[in-house]
């Protein structure tokens, strides 16, 4: 790790960086999800995972439960990193955070992203068809988490570990479930959406609906796997990201 503050973690950098990729985690996730990405992307793309409160080195901080105060707190920090062109990647909860952050950036007239990469999340303008789970009793909450097909068995089987993660997971799901979409103008840059073919929580049509949020190009890539297909298919995802961002850099 070469540089860190509370929010932005950079595991390695290069002197000829020309574009930054900010990465946002899924519910319960952290920057460690993106630890290997710097090694697999071209050296002129700097990976900047975003560490949210309540996890790893920020485990003693209270996690956010609503997306608006989260992005309002992050925006001033992010501003100092916008001296280069940049893009966003977000998986599940991270896709929602990156979307709302991009909208706040536009409102504040900061430099806007070159590209938005979203993964395993229905388009924000689509209402949820499922009841909220973040306030369920503990046993019922864990049973619902099993449907995401990616929660480690150790987390589900160990009551001690489960109790440690429970407040964070409840908070992260609250971000999803308290979100209220407000209509706005389309983005002027491309959106690339990724999805898992066997995702029991998000269908391909819900992911495809992201195309309605941009008046630029839209790309859809579906991979084998469930809601957390990112863990196994990240090299394929990075290949798509590298191809798109390298074109931006060349241009």
UniProtKB/TrEMBL annotation:
Residues 20-243 form the Thioesterase domain. One of its GO terms (biological process) is lipid biosynthetic process. InterPro entries: AB_hydrolase_fold (IPR029058), TEII (IPR012223), Thioesterase (IPR001031). It holds the Pfam family Thioesterase. Coiled coil: none annotated. Belongs to the thioesterase family. This is Gramicidin dehydrogenase.
């Amino acid at each position: 790790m070469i540089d860190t503050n509370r929010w932005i973690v950079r595991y390695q950098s290069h002197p000829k960086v020309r574009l930054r990729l900010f990465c946002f985690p899924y519910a319960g996730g952290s920057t460690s999800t993106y630890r290997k990405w710097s090694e697999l992307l071209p050296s002129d793309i700097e990976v900047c995972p975003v560490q949210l409160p309540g996890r790893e080195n920020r485990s003693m901080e209270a996690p956010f439960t609503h997306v608006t105060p989260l992005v309002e707190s992050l925006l001033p920090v992010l501003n100092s990193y916008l001296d280069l062109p940049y893009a966003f990647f977000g998986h599940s909860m991270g896709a929602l955070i990156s979307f709302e952050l991009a909208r706040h950036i536009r409102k504040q007239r900061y430099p806007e992203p070159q590209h938005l990469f979203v993964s395993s999340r229905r388009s924000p303008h689509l209402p949820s068809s499922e009841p909220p789970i973040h306030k369920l009793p503990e046993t019922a909450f864990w049973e619902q988490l099993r449907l995401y097909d990616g929660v480690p068995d150790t987390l589900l089987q160990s009551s001690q570990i489960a109790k440690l993660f429970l407040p964070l997971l409840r908070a992260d799901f609250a971000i999803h479930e308290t979100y209220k979409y407000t209509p706005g103008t389309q983005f002027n840059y491309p959106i690339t959406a990724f999805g898992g073919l066997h995702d029991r929580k998000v269908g391909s049509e819900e992911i495809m609906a992201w195309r309605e949020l941009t008046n630029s190009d839209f790309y859809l890539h579906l991979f084998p796997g469930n809601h957390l297909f990112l863990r196994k298919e990240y090299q394929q995802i990075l290949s798509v990201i590298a191809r798109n961002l390298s074109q931006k850099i060349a241009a």
